[in-house]
Amino acid sequence: MSLSRPSALLFAVTAVLSAQSSVPALDPAGLTQILKSGKWTVIEFGGPTCVPCKKMQPILAELQQQFGDRALVRNFYVTEHPKEARAHKVMAMPTQVVFDPSGKEVTRHIGFWEKGDFLAALTKAGLK
Fold first, then answer.
1. Hey, is 25 helix, strand or coil?
2. SS3 state of residue 91
3. Is the bond leading into 94 cis (omega within 30 degrees of zero)?
4. Helix H or strand E encompassing 67
5. CA-CA to 39 of 20 to 30 Å: which in 9, 69, 86, 97?
6. pLDDT digits over 2-61, tens only?
7. Where in the chain are the domains?
């Protein structure tokens, strides 16, 4: 079945929007709690209106799906919680930070992160 141009565009937009909504955003208490969860955790420190952050959402959703319950992938909005972002030494959006199961930071990236490079960094950090 072939989609018409408007239908294809609508399908693509719907896919992006559903991917964006599938990566939850944390508040400060949730961030503290998730880092004590005993699981690998990927936090994107960004904002809901930041263009590179929006472009990261489908990649983050794919990573969450790929790793399932082996890792937690979440957003943390710097614009809403700047004090907590500073405590994690976030200076630019987006910043992706990977924490091991003990809650220790193991890698960090600033800016848009291509999925292949992201996966390579996660594997190097020990998440398989």
1. strand
2. coil
3. yes
4. helix 51-67
5. 86
6. 555 655 444 444 444 444 448 999 999 999 999 999 999 999 999 999 999 999 999 999
7. 5-125
